[in-house]
Specification:
Layout lengths: L1 E4 L5 H13 L3 E6 L4 E6 L7 H5 L4 E5 L19 E3 L2 E3 L5 E5 L6 H14 L3 E3 L17 H14 L3 E4 L6 H7 L2 E4 L7 H10 L3 E4 L6 H12 L6 E5 L17 H8 L4 E3 L1 H5 L5 H10 L4 E5 L17 H17 L5
Length: about 325
């Protein structure tokens, strides 16, 4: 439920209401707006006598939250949440580009690619130090050595970086190095991992599962925010359908739906959606036109030699062309790049 405080409510009155809810067993999430404060309260409503809250000083009204996901719902927060990653703001007027190779393969490979990403206009570096692969015999990543290389690239380029965590045992390690933690599609419903990542208070990039519904995806985000971490960016990366021409099927409709249902930013991964580099530009254009707050694109300085996802990686010049083509589209929808 939502407890809406009067615009004249004092800090002391707000704290008293919150403390009463906590004593009743609720988890509280106060949101301080320009005109008034609302308190999101998650818990067993059967223990609550609404009169005990509505009659408290400073309370305007009490409203139910009808969606199963409570804290990320627009019923609780009407405006748009922005997330700061390093020195980059995601969810504002500017379209944000996450870019870099699928995996950190070596210091030379990653830093070369990172420099090219920055030159072309990228804002946040991406790359995998831990790689969950379909085959146990495929390249699994450099682990902490890869994290150190990404941290070095951040120092050289000035760009923050996001990388994936795949195991609860590695959350603390990844959080030590990364500016943002990614939960990949295969781990979207790994609830223990979601909970541990929520406790870090690091910004989180949450990818949609291989065949997840939008509600399932949002419920996964709720696990993170329930731990007190509201810095979540959703990532649509295509879902598995009967179509085999592309790697996945990009759900463009998810972008406006997410914008309607939740206050969280959403970015799109056209690389994993299509699986083939020649279709990435078209999907990138369509995603920004549909209202996405950014894109996450695989860029490798030499895709033919990539150890992971070479066919869906752009080379630096192709990435530069994508960025150039996106600028007028961003302007047409009232954004900038």
């Amino acid at each position: 439920m939502i407890v809406v405080m009067k615009s004249s409510a004092t800090t002391e009155q707000i704290e008293k209401v919150e403390n009463r809810l906590i004593r009743l067993g609720f988890k509280t999430h106060p949101i301080h707006g320009e005109k008034s404060t609302v308190i999101g309260a998650i818990g067993d409503k059967t223990v609550l006598s609404q009169e005990s809250i509505i009659n408290m000083d400073g309370v305007e009204t009490i409203m139910p939250i009808t969606k199963p996901y409570k804290l990320i719902s627009r019923e609780l927060v009407k405006g748009n949440t922005t997330v700061t990653v390093g020195n980059v703001l995601v969810g504002g007027d500017e379209i944000i580009l996450f870019a870099g190779p699928c995996a950190v393969e070596s210091e030379e490979q990653y830093i070369t690619s990172a420099l090219k990403v920055k030159e072309a206009g990228g804002h946040i570096l991406r790359g995998g130090a831990f790689k969950p692969r379909t085959s146990p015999y495929a390249f699994q990543g450099l682990e902490e050595a890869g994290l150190k290389i990404m941290a070095q690239a951040r120092e050289i380029t000035g760009l923050p970086f996001v990388t994936e965590v795949v195991d609860t045992r590695d959350v603390e390690l990844v959080a030590k190095y990364a500016d943002m933690i990614q939960i990949g599609a295969r781990n979207m419903q790994n609830f223990r991992l979601l909970t541990e990542v929520g406790k870090t208070k690091k910004p989180v990039l949450l990818k949609r599962g291989l065949a997840a519904t939008i509600e399932e995806w949002l419920m996964s985000a709720e696990y993170i925010i329930a731990e007190g971490n509201a810095d979540i960016i959703l990532c649509e990366r295509g879902i598995r359908t009967y179509e085999t021409t592309t790697r996945n099927t990009l759900d463009i409709s998810a972008i406006p739906v997410i914008k309607e249902l939740t206050h969280l930013p959403i970015v799109v991964d056209p690389s994993h959606a299509t699986g083939k580099r020649q279709w990435i530009p078209a999907l990138s254009n369509a995603s920004i036109a549909a209202g996405a707050d950014g894109l996450i694109i695989e860029v490798h300085h030499n895709p033919c030699e990539a150890l992971c996802d070479g066919p869906q990686s752009l080379d630096p010049e192709q990435f530069r062309s994508v960025v150039k083509a996106l600028k007028p589209i961003a302007a047409a929808v009232g954004r900038k790049l």
